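Checklist before submission:
- one chain only
- standard amino acids only
- sequence pasted in full

Submission:
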Amino acid sequence: MRYLTAGESHGPQLTTILEGVPSNLPLKAEDINEDLARRQKGYGRGRRMQIETDEVEILSGVRHASTLGSPITLVVENNDWKHWTKIMGIEEISEEEKEEVKRKITRPRPGHADLIGGMKYGHRDLRNVLERSSARETTVRVAAGAVAKKILSELGINVASHVLEIGGVRANPPQYKNLNELKDRTNESPVRCFDQSVEQEMMNAIDSAKENGDSIGGIVEVIIEGLPPGVGSYVQYDRKLDSKIAAAIVSINAFKGVEFGIGFEAARLPGSKVHDEILWNEEEGYTRGSNNLGGLEGGMTTGMPLVVRGVMKPIPTLYKPLQSVDIDTKEPFSASIERSDSCAVPAASVVAEAVVAWEVANAIVEQFGHDRMDLIKENIERLKSYAGEF
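Returned file contents:
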């Protein structure tokens, strides 16, 4: 499977085309809208979320609530477009109209794609860069991820995400009975954190950053349960599932790090306390004594829960702006301010959930039967049976 996204932050719409989604997958707009709504929530979001109410329109690839196997087109309209039709329109405008628009940006913001993107594509108006490099694009990545989650759900595979840390405030490791409990609790939390004892402290940190004109980042975690063993491969670097997931995580705007299982903590421990011992019993077959490696060995799933974390830096648009240089005058200035969030970590956990779900679903579809959901189910059951007897 693959997908491409298109659209600008203040353009008329965001679009994604999904290719390779198997046929006969039950799919309705509400399956996607639920995740779009989750992405828009979260303590610390900016005014843009008060303008937009993201809902998807399915334009191709689905008939009578079932996928056809042909490309699926998903569109999310930008409600704010009506205020930007002159500024972001595709039609040519006169010099007089250009002067009237007065939205040209020549002052790059530190931490954004503005300066380097302008250099790369030859744009003297940096709005041409920031409109596409904006995190608004993740809207349709969440839509694509919702389709991937629907595939996984049909296969008995459960996906969840939550926030572990915001602005240095750390949650205790979540203790839950099952993944549905984790999902229910985090969906109720304004910061998408399972640990209620630190929710207020996280919100206080966000409030403090906002009052100071600053921003803060954090750490999110994605967990997937119910995976069969052997998804992915060890035979080539680009077929390893963990490498694909790592690339997907750091492709999210402002994400700067990724780890699996105990991650970087493994560097501080001896091997005897890192690797997961292999156990076997009549009822379950092969199991593990721990899950320190996050459900992955040699680029393949082990059958244990997949656990991946991503590190999000503070959003670089600040209300106490940093120093920069005007690309026209070369004069120093305090960076311009575009509408922004003081903290987007809760929303980013939903985006992380989407991109990880896509990579896992893609690996499963590729490995177990490209075209039809019924064949994929049959092939997974065959693998589970074989693994139990191995």
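Reviewer check: The mean pLDDT is 93.
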